[in-house]
Every structure is written in structure tokens, then in C-alpha cells.
Amino acid sequence: MNLHPSEQITNSQLNSGLKLVIADGLSAEAMVVFTSGTFLTAMAIHMGATNFQLGLFAALPTFTTIFQLASIWLVQKWNNRKVITSAFNLLARLPLIAIGLMPLLFTGTTTIQVLLVLLFFQHIFGDIAGASWNSWMKDLIPGERLGSFFSRRSRMAQTLNVTLSLATAMGIDYVKAHYPAHEITAYTTLFLAGGVLGMLSVFLLLRTPEPKPTPMNDKVLKLFGRSLKDKNFRNLLAFNSLWAFALNLATPFFAVFMLKTIGLPLSYVIGLGIISQLSSIAFIKIWGNYSDRFSNKTIINICAPLYITYILAFAFTALPSSKLITLAVLVAIHIVSGLSTAGINLALSNIGIKLAPKKEAIVYISAKNMFVAFSSTIAPMVGGLLADFFANHHLLYDVSVAGSSVKLVDLQGWNYFFIIGGVLAIASLKLLKRVSEQGETHKRKVRMHMRAALRNKLRKNLGREVTDNLYAPSIAVSRKVVGMLGQKTPHGRFRQSA
């Protein structure tokens, strides 16, 4: 096990390392499933957490992002990202194991306050490790494989997430129904299992090769300021921050809206979330391949309008009088949500890595993470402050057709957030136009390429004669476009040395 950066990494070492990175992602994803999200919230509620304390749990991941500045200093001082990432990931897993062991070692001492303190340090150490890991992956993964690699990693992680979430939820429900006195033990056991899986992740990282980084000599704050002086990167920060604000103004209240306004059972809401995840899993490989072949900005330009449609559509989901129609509409928009978020999240992550200079990648990526985290944190807080105001304002517009009244607009409460969030998201796309990315292709050409690819699949499945009759008028044009795109495939685009 070599703990030192390597001057050169062979193809064999690279391929082996990428497999370890995927395995690390799967073990870390399992840890996240067991120790955060729905199961953490359920545990906190069972322990008697107040609404304010639940808000603190939700804010911890973004509040601690500022500690990524410490990672920049550590990488600058030691120039060994493997050791820094592994050491702080190890420290981040210890609080999870402590939460799992405390009820066994100290009866009755697990409190909300202790849980908050332990998770606070877990997130601090995790953020320091994460910033170092991003810089490490920037140098390890070749630029032309960035999209396809992370799409594959994300697809496998999401599949594991769905499977584990369902199995764990069924297990928790079984314990609550048959052994209610041991419910808290079930939750702490999840933390213990998550901590152990996190330790496995550390072992996998220690075996992953690290290219030798270029030393950074300036002071941390000076390096951080330099990233903000980069006009192109600053444009990316402006877009990503406004986009994050728009999404987090609306999306945290979707579940509340479906439960309270529409009146769906909790199982339906969870089921719709799973449909969205499955849609994401199905499409993320496609977006990964296209981001490598064309550009991340192009993928955002295609997927973002779809996601904005998803946000705006929520404002009108309560209009149909039939619950069956409402449910069908919700299924459709969650499918759109999954396929669009798969492309957006992948492209936003990759474009930040791509635009960051190799020498100072950790600084640029940390700056991006902090700005986005700040926007993501204040958005739901602003939404909460405005909730009472919108709750008392109702906009209703209907028309009479053949003696029957048909609602066209019915806005109240959370609906206003969805409209405002959608409008702000549209405004953020104006800022995206200022971002320059090497290898960028106009989205119209990519859409035509996608239609041509779909047509080729149809021709193989349905037969050349039938498909030619359906698409004959546009085959010549599509082939011409595909030829143009083939000439623009990124030979000479940004490539990273591994």
C-alpha cells in the first residue's frame, strides 16, 4: 500500500484505481443511507427533537462547508491528498460508530444534544476530506472520461440507495410493529453499520493511486480570492448559486405540499420519490456519455428547462378534481424530475471540476461548494419566513363552460414558492450564457443528434422499411447534423494527465 503520490500512473494502475473509487462510492453511499436523511429524521423525532433541532440537523451538511478552507491549507502544507482524505474520513466515521455504541456502553445517555455535537464533528471532518478528495479525483480521472465515469458511479450508488432505503424502511417498520421498545436500538445499529462501512471506504481509498499534485505556494485566503477574480469561474459561481437558491426555495416543500395540500398518504410520497430515482438511474448514463462527447453546459441547457417545468407544474397539481388524475400528473412530473436532475447534477459537478485549474483545483472547487452551500442554506430559511405571508394570500381564476366552472389558476400557500422558484431558475439560465466551456455545442444540435440516435434504434427494432417511411423527410438533415457533430467531438478538448 503506497501512501505517497506517484510521478506516473500506468493504465493498469489507473483502471484499478477507478474501480476502487467506485467501490468507495458504494460503501460511502450505504453509510449515508443508514446515517442521514429520512432515518436520521425518524430517529431524532423518536428521541423527542423539536422543530428547531430538526432544522439544525438539516442545516449541518451546508453549515460546515466553510471548513473546506482547512483542507486547502492541509493540502498546501503536506501535498498528500490521499493521506489527508483518508485520515479525515476516518475521523468522520468515528462519531457514527460512537452513536451506535453509546446505548450499549452508557444506558440512557444518548440525547439530541449529544447527537448534534457528534454529527457536527462528523460533517466538519467529512467536508475537509471531501475537498481534498475532489482535487485528487480531478488529477486522477482523465478529462475525456469524466462524465461517463461519474455517471456510472452515480448510477450504481443510486441503485444501491433505492434498494437499501426500501429494505431498511421495511426493517424499521417491522421493529416498530413487533418490538417497539427496541426502536432506538434499531436506529443506533444503523449508525454502527454505517460507521463500519465508512471504515471500509477509508481502506479502499488508501489503495487508490494518487498523481503527484502541483504545490501551491500562496496563502489560503489569497488563493481563495484568486478563484473569485477568475471571470469565467465567477460567472459559474453566480449561475450555480442562483440556481441552488431557486431550487431550495421550492423543492424542500414538495413533500409538505403533497402530504398536506393534496392529501397523499406518506407511502405514495415515498413511492413518487423512488420513481424519480429510478428515472434518474435510467438516464444518468446517457447524460454522462453526452457530457463527455459535447459539453456539460450543453447538458445543463437541455435538462434545466425540464426541471423548471417540473417546479412550475407542482403549482397546478392540485387543480384536477380526480385524485387519480392528480396522481398520474405527479408520476409524470417525477419521471421528468429524475431524468433532468440526473443530467443537471452530473453536469454541475463536472463543469466545476473541469473549469478549475489543475494547480489550484481544490481552491476553486471549495469556493464553488461554499457559495452553493450558502445559497442552499438561506433559501429554505427565506421560504420559512415568507410562509405565513403566502398562507394568507389566495389567487383563484376560473371560467364557466357550459354551466360548469373550470379552475385555471389556484395559487395559495406553497404554490407561490413553486412559481417564484421557477422564475428564479429561469433567470439563472441567463447567467449560464456567460459561462464559457471548451467543446461547447449548441443544444439544438445535440437534440437533433439524440433524435437521430433514437431513430437508429427504432430502425433496428422495428425494421428499416417502416422507420424510413416515418422519418424519410428528415433523414438527410439528421445525418448532416450528426456529421457536423462528429467533426466537433472534443479532439483537443481539455484533457487531464493521470
Automatic annotation (TrEMBL):
Membrane-spanning regions, if any?
21-46, 52-75, 87-106, 184-206, 236-259, 265-287, 299-319, 325-348, 369-391, 411-432
Q: Which domain of life is it from?
A: Bacteria
CDD domains recorded: MFS
Concerning Pfam families, the annotation shows: MFS_1 (PF07690)
Name of the protein in question: MFS transporter
InterPro entries (UniProt xref): MFS, MFS_trans_sf, Sugar_transport-like
The UniProt entry, under SUPFAM superfamilies, shows: MFS general substrate transporter
Organism annotation = Mucilaginibacter litoreus
Q: Could you tell me the keywords of this UniProt record?
A: Membrane, Transmembrane, Transmembrane helix
Keyword hit for Transmembrane helix: yes
